[in-house]
Design brief:
By secondary structure, the protein is an all-alpha fold. It is 80% helix and 0% strand. Helix 1 runs antiparallel to helix 2 and helix 5 packs antiparallel against helix 6. InterPro entries: Rv2743c-like.
């Protein structure tokens, strides 16, 4: 997903900036060495100035050579506008997915876009019903564990299949409007068959969601008393028994008389 043409020109710009920086540095160090080097001979500090200036000049020369070599290479061809737009969308989607709420936002955007694509077709109403049922099931999925887990997997597979069927219904319906009169009969029959399959499939999905809600409701309403509540009841009864025994004990005791 890398734009080779853009990367080529980025490398050219980096090399050009680097060559200019080293050229300026080499000129400054060279001028300082020429001015500060005494005519009577070179000392140790003067040798350091001269060495730094020579190194900077060499690096600057290498940078200019690399720049000319890269500039002589033909730039890669420009991307097709459609491909460039697709890559930009992919980068935007990847950036949104990294956000905490990104996956949910993208799922909602895809759902709305898919619904708009079916607007005006027979499949639009079935798609909206399927959306409502799928959202309801998603809210229950966290509690559908144990024996209910296979039903969740089957529901996910059925959701994908029904959405594909809805797209096929919409496609056949659009083609039906463009078909010549002699071909409309068989196409209309096929469209009616697909619509019937979609309606029955969505109705079955809705029944599954209702059954899942019933399972969650029964699972959250146990037939026996909660263990903690049962232990508290036993402790209360025990205290009542102890209090009653102490009361009876005090009633049966006679006060001691002194002679």
């Amino acid at each position: 997903m890398v734009d080779e043409r853009a990367r080529h020109f980025r490398r050219l710009r980096r090399l050009r900036r680097s060559a200019r920086r080293w050229s300026v540095l080499a000129g400054g160090l060279g001028g300082a060495a020429a001015v500060l080097t005494p005519y009577a001979g070179l000392g140790l500090p003067d040798a350091a100035w001269a060495g730094a200036a020579g190194s900077a000049i060499a690096v600057a020369a290498w940078r200019w050579v690399d720049l000319r070599a890269l500039a002589a290479v033909p730039a890669p061809p420009a991307l097709d506008p459609a491909e460039a737009a697709a890559r930009s969308r992919a980068r935007l989607v990847a950036a949104v997915e990294r956000l905490p709420v990104g996956p949910g936002v993208l799922a909602e955007v895809r759902r709305v876009r898919s619904r708009l694509a079916l607007r005006g077709t027979t499949a639009a109403e079935a798609w909206a019903r399927l959306d409502r049922a799928a959202l309801t099931l998603a809210g229950l999925a966290g509690r559908l564990t144990g024996l209910a887990e296979p039903a969740v997997r089957e529901a996910a597979e059925a959701d994908r299949s029904l959405r594909d069927l809805a797209n096929r219904v919409a496609g056949v319906e659009r083609a039906l409007k463009l078909a010549p009169a002699e071909a409309r009969g068989s196409l209309a029959e096929a469209h009616a068959t697909l619509v019937g399959q979609l309606d029955s499939g969505v109705a079955a999905y809705e029944r599954l969601v209702v059954a899942a809600a019933g399972y969650v409701a029964e699972d959250a309403h146990p037939s026996t008393q909660d263990p903690s509540a049962a232990r508290l009841t036993e402790a209360t009864d025990l205290l009542h028994g102890v209090a009653g025994a102490l009361a009876e004990l005090r009633a049966t005791q006679t006060p001691l008389r002194t002679p």
